């Protein structure tokens, strides 16, 4: 912790940061070319020309900036800062293109943030009448937003120790660029393979090619954008099952898949966080099925099917739904909120506070109870899955939980001051902060602009796990002692 504090006390180096921003802008420019090509062969809508102009501008600005970074290491606060800026700049550059297809600026910002953060909340309606290239762009933003958090953030912020818990160690040490690149490359390969399998499986399940592509991209990114106002309810049952399975796959830590060829299924099933994910999905689904069958007119078979889809969607923070969440009993909505808040595995595309932090918290409670029945001199270590949880990791988990709860309470307070119903307001705030995308009916075209902005802030805080955005606004990040070496 002292080492982490020391690095945060050193201001970011402008040359390094500008170089990283340049690389980010060039990456966004390249990503913008794909929807331009899709628009070229489909709609030729105004979106195409604005996307093309935006990509050209980003590439022109990013190329000279990228040449500024020649250093081999990145400070912890520099990694946090560029991560926070990435998830602000990525949706920001999409606002102008979306305005060109008659979307209001606030709604364009909301849609872009929801896409890049893989949330899936939307204020737009009449999706069936929207241009094809726009529907693709939404799914595309969720796909590369999921890749960004899975590869870019994990590679830059986290240290990686083979054979130990890898994805929760914000130790504050400098990271070698070579190591970050190698890890990002491995995650990208896994992500690409899962994407190809997901789109092919969705197509084989009976979806049209374009529908399979958009829903497959959204499922891999655990995003939840669909091409219908009824979400995935109009899709064939086989397609719903395939997409739900893809969501579960994407909610597992992506680096673990790279270990499958060498270690086999134990690479996944041996991880306590993966086992916790399956247990949480089954528990959530069972509770939802029981509540819906008891309080509604649904037959048990339908209640179980809908409960399973919603349970997977909530626990993986995807946002796909075959039912109207607003019509569910309050008890079912509460179960969904808890599930969304917990989320999936670290290093995956899922949101929430992550299961590993819940396991750490439960283990802390267990150790506290054990201390009451043991000698004062007894040494009780906090372990999860056989790995010792370091004090820094415990402090980091508790700090994040505290910040997360504070964001939820403040955002909920704004909704209440605006006269919104308490239960539905809390649901929307939890869904946005968890990057889940399920809605209790408040998020829509008629929502007040202030509340739309609150939810976009919640989505950003949830996706970068709060600390990165706080570092951006932390004064010593910009003013203070700097390292003399690059």
TrEMBL record:
The protein, known as: Cation transporter
One GO term (biological process): metal ion transport
One Pfam family matching this protein: TrkH
UniProt GO cellular component terms: plasma membrane
Location of this chain's protein in the cell: Cell membrane
Keyword set, alphabetical order: Cell membrane, Ion transport, Membrane, Transmembrane, Transmembrane helix, Transport
Gene Ontology molecular function, alphabetical: monoatomic cation transmembrane transporter activity
Protein family according to the UniProt entry: Belongs to the TrkH potassium transport family.
Principal subcellular localisation of the protein: membrane
């Amino acid at each position: 912790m002292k080492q982490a504090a020391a690095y945060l006390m050193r201001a970011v180096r402008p040359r390094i940061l500008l170089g990283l921003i340049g690389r980010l802008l060039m990456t966004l420019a390249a990503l913008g070319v794909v929807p331009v090509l899709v628009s070229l062969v489909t709609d030729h809508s105004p979106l195409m020309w604005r996307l093309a102009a935006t990509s050209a501008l980003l590439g022109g600005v990013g190329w000279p900036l990228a040449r500024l970074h020649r250093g081999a290491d990145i400070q912890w606060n520099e990694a946090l800062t560029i991560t926070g800026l990435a998830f602000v700049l990525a949706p920001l550059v999409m606002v102008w293109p979306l305005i060109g297809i008659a979307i209001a600026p606030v709604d364009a910002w909301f849609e872009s943030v929801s896409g890049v953060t893989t949330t899936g909340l939307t204020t737009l309606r009449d999706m069936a009448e929207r241009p094809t290239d726009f529907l693709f762009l939404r799914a595309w933003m969720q796909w590369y937003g999921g890749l960004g958090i899975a590869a870019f953030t994990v590679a830059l912020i986290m240290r990686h120790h083979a054979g130990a818990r890898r994805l929760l160690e914000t130790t504050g040490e400098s990271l070698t660029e070579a190591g970050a690149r190698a890890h990002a490359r491995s995650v990208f390969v896994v992500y690409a393979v899962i994407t190809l399998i997901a789109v092919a499986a969705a197509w084989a399940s009976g979806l049209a090619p374009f529908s399979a592509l958009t829903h497959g991209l959204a499922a891999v990114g655990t995003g939840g954008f669909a091409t219908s106002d009824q979400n995935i309810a109009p899709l064939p049952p086989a397609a719903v099952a395939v997409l739900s399975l893809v969501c579960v796959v994407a909610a597992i830590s992506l680096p673990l898949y790279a270990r499958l060829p060498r270690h086999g299924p134990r690479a996944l099933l041996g991880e306590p966080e993966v086992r916790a994910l399956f247990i949480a999905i089954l528990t959530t689904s069972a509770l939802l099925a029981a509540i819906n069958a008891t309080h509604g007119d649904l037959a048990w078979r339908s209640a179980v099917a809908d409960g399973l889809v919603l349970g997977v969607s909530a626990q993986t923070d995807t946002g796909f739904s075959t039912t109207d969440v607003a019509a569910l009993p309050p008890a079912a909505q509460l179960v969904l909120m808890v599930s969304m808040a917990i989320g999936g595995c670290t290093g995956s595309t899922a949101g929430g506070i992550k299961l590993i932090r819940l396991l750490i918290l439960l283990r802390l409670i267990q150790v506290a109870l054990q201390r009451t029945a043991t000698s004062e001199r007894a040494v009780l270590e906090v372990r999860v899955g056989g790995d010792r949880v370091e004090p820094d990791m415990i402090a980091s988990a508790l700090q994040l939980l505290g910040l997360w709860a504070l964001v939820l309470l403040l955002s909920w307070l704004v909704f209440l001051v605006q006269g919104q119903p308490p239960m539905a307001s809390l649901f929307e705030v939890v869904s946005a902060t968890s990057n889940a995308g399920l809605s209790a009916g408040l998020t829509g075209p008629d929502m007040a602009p202030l509340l739309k902005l609150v939810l976009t802030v919640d989505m950003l805080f949830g996706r970068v796990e709060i600390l990165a955005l706080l570092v951006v606004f932390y004064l010593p990040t910009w003013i203070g002692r700097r390292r003399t070496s690059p």
